[in-house]
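User: Fold this; tokens only.

Assistant: Input:
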Amino acid sequence: MLTTRPQWGYWCECWTEDLTEGGMSELRGSFDAYSAPQAARWVAVALCTISPALGAEAADEAWRWLDEGRVKTRLALMRQQPCSVAVTQARTRITWTIRPVLFLPLAHRPSIELPFCAYDFKPQQPD
């Protein structure tokens, strides 16, 4: 979204963490939401999408948040509090985080001309 003024919103991320010894966390996706309901809906859609593939315990965690936690999350976000939702499937924890942020406007380029430095990079010919 291109704006001329800073705008409050929510930065949403989805992380997976390998729970085996020495496992690493990986960022799987991110999303910029401009309202608390939109941020909570991003998590809800993801949970609804993956819930059929989850084991019974993880699916229960997901549906518990969808039934009870979603409203609490939305209220916390409207109070500008960060939130997270996590489910654990086998040896993987999936965590969605939502943080209130101030989105800054980006520089806008009114013309379609690329800056001169863009022409310095030529595609390489295959060997």
